[in-house]
# Entry
Amino acid sequence: MSQKLSVFVVLGLIISMASGCGNEQTYVPKPKGYNRIDLPPHEYRQLDEEHPYTFEYSKHAVVKPDTFAHSEPHWIILSYPDYDALIQFTYKSLDGSPEKLSKHIDDAFKLAAKHHVKATSQREQIIELNNGKRAVTIEIEGEVPSHFQFYVTDTTNHYLRGAVYLMEPTLNDSLRPVIDYMKEDCLHLLETLTWKP
# Structure
């Protein structure tokens, strides 16, 4: 009985090997994918703190004071805790000085240039806002922590610079939805920006 069983096992192996020989399948690896990031709809509220400016900012962000060692009054951070991201704002009073304005604009481009080591491209653009103001935006591509920066000024009294930072070390291609989401938030706050007397 065991001899018959072993003959059937051997025959079964031979048949299965013979039937599989002509049907070779090549292995195709799956392409790399990125984690899915579900972003909430854009919703805004008014900045009510005592600053020389106000704007509408995301309801998904938290306003914090800037605790950087050299921070000045009216420097704030909009923190997006769910995405480990933030927008840093630096405000400067111009006091009617064209020299101060020129220095702050130069500083904005110097700060953007610090990303050139890992940047693949940088694009500056003057945008006309629906509220009648103009802003300069700087978009930086590559594995950089800040992809979107901007400044806006009334050229005589107020200057405000913003920079979006992603603290997540993941490849930036996977974070593109967050980058685009925060860029839209920045454009909204620029559209709703008003200077206080």
About this structure: The helical segments are 2-21, 98-113, 176-191. The longest strand covers residues 119-128.
